[in-house]
Write a structure and sequence with these properties.
Length: 243
């Protein structure tokens, strides 16, 4: 449960309670929640939901006629996400459950195979030799059980024939996920590398995977100009959420 005094993040249509033990609100989550294509989406899954931000972003964009299941292996995250869902305008459409991505689907996943239109995810990104000190952060940010291979497997299990996986990754993880997705019959449909400012290296990559056939759409995004101002592209992408 969020402790008194912990920050709240105020978005245009919802307020997100946070907790020091739960993965924090990050720009990369805002980016993938804004960038993911939602045409035709009625059923969606958020893996590694943390405080529930991505599920709430989907709910705001979908408005009505949808159902989102959010999963996390950390009970503190699940409790916090449930609280944030209940405080929102979409409480009846958002569901949160504790489940580890490495467990079999019959152990805690109330979803049918090949039933989902979208999986959205901001996966753990620390390598095994660069670990945050906090125990909760270690579980939430480190690929011990939440592996990209397991994410690809669950995409294969859950996505229907027109379903897609939308994910934000560091440059080091994109090749690994693409190989895993290819083994399960998926191809890259959209790719958008992100840099902080002109001349800086790639910060992360927004990627979308679907079952073939698909022609990949390439774009790019720069967040700030050399004076530190938001670029028009960044402002436009996230305008539905930032006050």
């Amino acid at each position: 449960m969020a402790k008194s005094g912990n920050p709240e993040f105020v978005f245009q249509e919802f307020t997100l309670l946070t907790d020091a033990a739960v993965f924090p609100v990050t720009t990369d989550s805002i980016l993938i929640g804004s960038w993911a294509r939602l045409d035709g989406v009625e059923r969606a899954v958020d893996f590694g939901c943390g405080s529930g931000l991505l599920a709430l972003m989907l709910a705001q964009r979908l408005t009505s006629g949808f159902e989102v299941y959010a999963f996390d292996s950390d009970p503190t995250s699940v409790s916090l996400a449930q609280m944030n869902f209940e405080r929102s305008s979409w409480a009846k459409d958002l569901h949160c459950m504790q489940w580890d991505l490495g467990f079999p689907m019959d152990q805690g996943v109330p979803l049918e195979y090949n039933s989902q239109d979208l999986i959205i995810c901001n996966p753990p990104y620390f390598s095994r030799n660069v670990l945050p000190a906090s125990g909760h952060r270690r579980r939430n940010r480190h690929q011990l059980t939440f592996t990209l291979e397991n994410l690809a497997l669950r995409a294969c299990d859950l996505l229907n024939s027109h379903g897609r996986l939308s994910v934000v990754l560091p440059p080091s993880g994109e090749s690994q996920l693409s190989k895993a997705m290819s083994r399960y019959g998926f191809v890259l449909q959209r790719r958008c590398p992100v840099i902080h400012a002109p001349g800086m290296p790639e910060l992360c990559c927004l990627a979308e995977y679907v079952r073939p056939p698909a022609d990949c759409e390439f774009s790019h995004l720069t967040l700030f100009d050399l004076e530190g101002n938001k670029t028009p592209e960044f402002a436009l992408l996230t305008q539905e959420f930032y006050p």
